[in-house]
Amino acid sequence: MQFRVSAAFLIFIGSYTPLAIILAIQNIPFEWWSRPICELPKLLALTCAFNPFKNPLLAILLVALTVSSAFLASQLFKRIAFPHRIEVVSVKAVPNEIINYTFPYVVSFMGISYSEPEKLLGFLVFLLWMFAITYKSGQIIMNPLLLIFGWNLYEANIQINGVSRVVKVLKKGSFPPGNYKAQTIQDFYICKE
Questions:
Q1: Per-10-residue mean pLDDT for the chain, 193 residues long?
Q2: Which among 24, 88, 92, 128 would be 20 to 30 A from 190, CA to CA?
Q3: Around Cβ 118, how many Cβ atoms within 10 Å?
Q4: What's the pTM?
């Protein structure tokens, strides 16, 4: 099975929720942090000016896009069908390779801001290339967002249809040897009890 491009894109974009939050925080002028906290009566009367962003449309839009993508990605994983039965003989945890996701975070501290649309557009093109590469290489599953949702990556020696193989498995929670339901997505197995 292969992720549809739209589902893979949701997973990819959702993984950048922390980056969108970092960029939004960087979009708040330093002076705003020293302002007094709005008192409850003014807040309820809607007389408080509570827009801290220099570029509120972009800041709010990107945070909303990534958060909603992360939520939808978590829902996608709940809908996966598990048609295969496998026996897991042995398991070892594999550290999640998050290097592909760290580059954009480093870039966010190197001068990207919502005030410079040309740099932001270049960064978005960079993210689209990253998506294309991770999707075509079958690595969309190696995503730090999945760690937040409780999924872990393992290398397992399995038996499927009488054939023994060593595969990479994505499983929510612990993964002791035993019998599991499974689905193959790209080059990975996704398992559940």
A1: 79 88 87 76 66 86 94 87 93 70 60 80 85 83 77 91 91 92 88 90
A2: 128
A3: 7
A4: 0.76
